[in-house]
Design brief:
Elements: H1 4-13, E1 18-22, H2 28-34, E2 43-48, H3 52-57, H4 63-69, H5 74-88, E3 92-98, E4 112-118, E5 126-131, H6 136-156
Parallel strand pairs: 1-2, 1-3
Antiparallel strand pairs: 3-4, 4-5
Pfam family, one: CinA
Protein name: Competence damage-inducible protein A
Organism: Knoellia subterranea KCTC 19937
């Protein structure tokens, strides 16, 4: 498990900045990163885009895609990460979208989550699908941990686009 301290140190060491776009985590990824002393050297900011229309209007997620798939979708997560990156002028963008629970939403069961990270290491965002089975808070915390793991892997060059089930 990658810690926020490890991610912040890697970002600072590589002179990269980061921005977040969060839905189901409601700012928890930003909170984890900014809890680390020295994070002001790398964290540009974050957008909590809980409402679907905010994903489109603020983060420039394709409205047609949102209408077709809803907000719980890998491509939506990728566009959110890219949107945060552009909007906040960061080198790296990360995103979370999904259903924390306790019940289903948007036709998806609780625990269905997509995360994404976009950065200088690839032309397209890296996405991961998570199938979580905790309660609401556990699903939110596991999503934060998964984003930190993904960032850690991408910053060290060990990431894959393989879907993850936790």
């Amino acid at each position: 498990m990658t810690t926020a301290e490890t991610v912040v140190a890697a970002l600072v060491g590589r002179r990269l900045t980061v921005a977040t776009a969060e839905s189901l985590t409601g700012g928890l990824v930003s909170a984890a990163l900014t809890s680390v002393p020295g994070s002001s050297d790398t964290v540009r900011g974050g957008v909590v885009a809980y409402a679907t229309d905010v994903k489109a209007s603020v983060l420039s997620v394709d409205a047609a895609r949102l209408a077709e798939t809803g907000p719980v979708d890998a491509e939506v997560a990728a566009q959110m990460a890219e949107g945060a990156r552009r909007l906040l002028g960061a080198d790296v963008g990360v995103a979370t979208t999904g259903v924390a629970g306790p019940g289903p939403s948007e036709g998806m069961p609780a625990g269905t989550v997509f995360i994404a990270a976009a950065g200088p290491w690839a032309d397209a965002a890296t996405t991961r699908a998570l199938a979580l089975d905790g309660d609401r808070e556990a699903n939110r915390q596991q999503t934060v941990a998964a984003v930190l793991d993904l960032l850690g892997e991408l910053l060290t060059g060990s990431a894959s686009d393989t879907p993850v089930t936790r």
